[in-house]
Sequence to fold (451 residues):
Amino acid sequence: MKKIYTSFMLLAILMFSSNLFAGEDPFIEYEKTRQQITQFYATNAFQVDMWDIVFPVTRPYFMKQHNDHQYAGMIHSSSTREGGLLTDMMYYEWELGAWEEFLKSKYTYDGNLYLSEILSMAMIEGIWVNSQRSLYTNNASGQHLEMLFQIWNADVRSWQDMWHTTYTYDGSGNLIGELMEMWMGTGWENWMKITHTYDNNQLQQSMQESWDFMTQNWKNSTLNIYSYLGNGNLSEDLRQIWETTRAWVNDEITYFQYNGQGQNHETDIDDWDGSSWVNFYHIENTFDGNGNKIEAFTEIWENNAWVNYFHDTMMYDGNNWLIEMVVQEWESNAWVNAMKVVYTYMPVGIIVPGYGTASEILLYNTPNPFSDQTIIHFKLNESSNVNITLWDITGKQVRILINRQFNAGLHEVTWNAENNQGSKVSNGIYFCRLQAGNESVVVKIILMPKN
Fold:
């Protein structure tokens, strides 16, 4: 029954954990769960963030569809939108004709605005309870160096280590290795590792090995081989598995097709039946004029015919940030609501053309929108004189907040919605401009009426 997908992320980790502590082979239980989740992600328009919440082992081709990013950088930038950072994801399932919250995730960032924690909570009998969390350490470029995955132990009311991932990169910043270790109660034990190889910074292969707990050796598990078009777009992802005959055997292949704008408008996933490729999934994507994916139809091959399976609808705000996605299943010859995800972001500054790069100055305010006062946060990489000025939408200066010297680091200043004369300004849109030396950034601030 397909309805299992609506609560799958929470159930998957709980089932995996219970099997692990019941004494099952941890790799076998992990692989079963991972394959189910992979199938779900292959047929839906979920962001990489959601995959990272459940299991940090990634399917690189999902990220390579975004051709303006390299795989090595996507682990961090999956939670980043131009001018904003993802802060919250709320998950709903369709029950008795209404949306009900069942899971939420909170994204936290360090002083450099690099992702440091993903905390997930589950709705249990009307109360939000801790479920799981991922803790990250990053290098100077914001790429993850380590990830610690923990689940909440309600019996002792504390976080319990599950596994730890170490990421390694080459001199070009490409992710070349992922080593996962499992907590066995008294110490860390090897679990699995993934090795990525590149040609001219283009990902060519990803090989996963699992740790044999009996022989204490690594053994081959899966191999993904990637092919590309002349323009660099990913065209094929061939997945092979290691058989006991000590040979790589075909398992699954994914074909990507692109429209004239270079957008992945069709994807076909075929299974290997032992002698030839057979149809499995077919996905058609639709994009708006801004290049945002707004719709995805998934069909599954059944009884020698394509049958409707999933329908995803995505909505975006004026910043082209994904703010909502609704997943529907095909049941009884009709589309039926299954899951909804709502995304929330934190603005972090818009670079004014000709004034430098995002790595030099960061600017954002919280809350936004606001009704009484808002705190304006900014980060400097070096000591500088800082001028922060508010402007209305007509270009009229409203308030000079500060104009003085600041040291490098994070700072904040409060705006109480007053102008230079001390009078309250009217509700509406304002622009906050920070000038530091020759660099400048601007964020949009929205003043709302009080409730």
Observations:
- Confidence is low (pLDDT under 50) at residues 1-78, 350-359.
